[in-house]
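Run log, item B.
One chain of 759 residues. Sequence copied directly from the ordering sheet:
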Amino acid sequence: MSAAWLRELVLGVRLSVSGGRSGWLRLALIAAGVGLGVGMLLVLAAAPTAVASREQRRADRALGASVEQAGPGTLLALTTETRFRDEPVRGRIVRPEGDRAPAPPGVARMPAAGELYVSPALAALIAGPGGELLAERWSAHVAGTIAPQGLSGPDEVYFYVGAGTLTTDDGAARIASFGGGGPPTTDPTIVVLAVIGAAILLLPVLVFVTTAVRFGSESRERQLAAIRLVGADSRMTRRIATGDALIGAVLGLAVGGLVFLGLRRGVGALLPADFSPYPSDLRPVPPLLAAILVLVPAGAVLVTLSALRRVVIEPLGVVRQSGVRRRRLWWRLIPPGAGLALLYPLLGGLPGDVGPGTRVQLAAGAILLLTGVVVLLPWLVQAVVRHLGGGSVAWQLGIRRLQLDSDTAVRFVSGIAVSVAGIIAIQGLLSTSIAATSGTQPPADRLQAVVYTNGADGTGWKAALAGTPGVEAVRTSGYGYLRTDPDQAGATVRVGDCDVLRQYAPLPSCADGDSFQAVHPGWESPTLPAGATTPVFGTDDVAPLSHWQVPAGLPVVTLYTSEAAPMSYLATPAALKLRPDLRGMFTDAYLLGLDPARPDAIERVRNTMTRLAPAAPLQLFGDDRIGNQFAGGRQVAQGCAVLFLLFIGASMLVGVTEQLRERRRLLAVLAAFGTQRRTLSASLLYQVAIPASIGLLLAVLIGSSLSAVLLAATKAPVELDWPAIAAMTATVAAMVVAVTAAGLPLLFRLLKVQELRSE
């Protein structure tokens, strides 16, 4: 019996391969569709390996345990970060304290004083336009390139520079080895975007693969009917169909492997530099690879057999069972309900470090919630169209077709609905992140940058900054303490002229002698009662610099969260009776006005600060780099969604074409009785548009719910991204019209009288 089964499977393969031009076209469509989906599945299966490899290299180069005493095997290391234009540049300043000091991973030897080891990406920046400014930053010559084992990825901009004067007073750590560091804490929003993005991508891919397996099913059924004519029974035809499905799936696996090899060379270009993997890092996890190799052919067979379940293949033709099955609702509510149950505990907020368990919970909850789109849509379409009727002839033709058989239309619309629901959830997170990072930026019209001492001695900084080419103004900002009781911490006050204070909060108006009460979102700063007189303390915590009487009716301003630490008050020097040069205050910040005609001025400031204090924070006012990254992520997400919808639209077109060919005699009869082309074209539009509209409404409901849950989990305001929803709605509407228009030429050809002929 097994040998007979094998012969029938082989016969199905032979018939599929030797089916002539139409058979080859169908096989090519199946292989291309399955291959595209398999390629994307392999990329997802390789993502854990790429992430693990990147994190392992970062852990290997992390600073080891601190050592108190210097020795022949110790070194000093100071981690720094700067920027060149919009590119973050990270690295370490190192100084060996003995001849046996370990070299960092990826570096052949410990760099000597004045030597610089750079990553390939940093070498390209130095060799590129304006790179001479970047080369001047460390006053060192490039002695070599960091090997891949010392970098998180091929696009990371990283360096090691040797210094002869580095000490622990500069903030350097004394270590005897590299490695042993744990993975860095990642922003929960980034983790959620990554996990949900992978989950959202997975489900539409699976829907697309199962749809691709059924390309050309109508021609296959005619072929099986011919086989019945020469003596095959129904079981034999199903085994032959199984062989036909297997060859398509196997070819799809081969095509998917080629797609994966092509994608892994270009996937890094779609990711930020900190996340770009080496091509060798993208290796599918063996269990996931085995699951793909087994489940894709098995799924192809199951989908094929399921499709044949309601088809009666007779020797003279194919008859489809037209009885309407009433779909049950109760079991379809289980997946979205389970998804909400998994996500509900996260509504209070994610932990600071999102561990593997939480990531699995997020992914499982999102997948189950999105699965609700797939399982609820067939029931919802059937429930809606069952109650529709009346209207024009075109409307009745379209509705009646959906009432008799909505499975095919729902199958193609499911991929659209899942994609739209997923992109709505992602867009909500991205839009909130953009608003959070771009809505609290201080102005950059008067002063453009600020340098913080970060606790270091800032003596000489103002003169050095003022002497930097391109710097037109240097303003000093300081802070002091207001304590009426020596045993209490008291309130804090930031002091500076009006231009300085405007960089910390939007002021209604300001003149020398004004002061303001400051509010920091999410922080309760201590305040003093109106009319109270308090001493003002600066660097000397014993002798006050002056005394300040808190004015009544003090204006309340909200601090820019991106630039300022929590402060209780903002005040000009005259308000506190202090010297204009703030002598005696903690002068922790120098605000810079840059020459707009010198676009390289900020790079020269960074060069100056690298010489003065490499670890000192330098920030640009009005810097929306992080917001731009989220905006770029939103554009990438929209582009991926549109591309995916185009692929699904192509599969919808194949399905519409198959339905038209299957109904060619019926269409020819309608045309022979005088039905107008316009009527039949409109009926075709209704058959596509009605399930798509229902699927879109369901996608908006579930996608918005998922977006709200994710926003609550990241402690962000729950606001829907209506522009993104409108964009997806317009895209789906355009795709429905395009699919209908693309099917019209075939429809018109099938309306000819010749289609009434039968064999």
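Observations after the first pass:
- Residues 322-437+627-756 form one domain.
- Residues 461 and 612 are 7 Å apart (CA to CA).
Flagged for discussion on Thursday.
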